């Protein structure tokens, strides 16, 4: 095991902790040789912390508000960037020479240890604005000097999007133009939303996806899952994930994470999200008919009915009928 290299993620609460559990399991299942580190916020409960300790090599509590360091001072000036400062803590992991940061709403589909051959700051383009990188997956080198400079940058410039992506794109501002080797292929951070904006490309390359990123408001853990019937339920009006990837997430969560949670929670009640006999996907019921104008507006607002009339298969059939 490469003792001085690690995959790093962040969980600020129990919901994101579940994401981190699945991410950690997916990295282990694909035989990573790297260490696994999770940074957790004070809101993460003891049972969830216990599960994370069984999956990760290192579980580190980070709380910017408590520290008397530079982060605390920066925080006083920019309270709006709370979670962002927490994420920047990954640069303080100086017992590692190189790390790959991954958001807790990502899922690994194959071994990605080759990312450690990349330099800081390597990342994939953001689907919304490809001259920016998406900060859900990036290669970095821990350094107290870089950490200090990042905090200073935060304080002086803030973030153009209110989060860490704005900060990091501002700080590593030459990413778009300086060195193409720092541009990770999109398959290392495949946004589940972007699939639908360019379907032919997904058809062509989607099978090579190595990491899927569940961007958007609705996260995998916001649904419920019937493990027996292999069915996902929840409000599909906001579904932004390809059903196959969502099923991959739930299959891994229900088989490998939920048993650990039951052990940690013991007699304490908790909601695993796995429910037998739930009603199937609402989209499988007959959807109310929508005018093409309403449907167009929904698409433009990013609210396509991905599991119903706008499902991948339906769109494919439509494309095939046009192409014929």
From TrEMBL:
Major location category of this protein: cytoplasm
GO CC, any one term: cytoplasm
GO BP term, pick one: glycogen biosynthetic process
Keyword rRNA processing attached: no
Cofactor section: Mn(2+)
Reactions performed catalytically: L-tyrosyl-[glycogenin] + UDP-alpha-D-glucose = alpha-D-glucosyl-L-tyrosyl-[glycogenin] + UDP + H(+); [1,4-alpha-D-glucosyl](n)-L-tyrosyl-[glycogenin] + UDP-alpha-D-glucose = [1,4-alpha-D-glucosyl](n+1)-L-tyrosyl-[glycogenin] + UDP + H(+)
Similarity field: Belongs to the glycosyltransferase 8 family. Glycogenin subfamily.
Primary role: Glycogenin participates in the glycogen biosynthetic process along with glycogen synthase and glycogen branching enzyme. It catalyzes the formation of a short alpha (1,4)-glucosyl chain covalently attached via a glucose 1-O-tyrosyl linkage to internal tyrosine residues and these chains act as primers for the elongation reaction catalyzed by glycogen synthase.
Name of the protein this chain belongs to: glycogenin glucosyltransferase
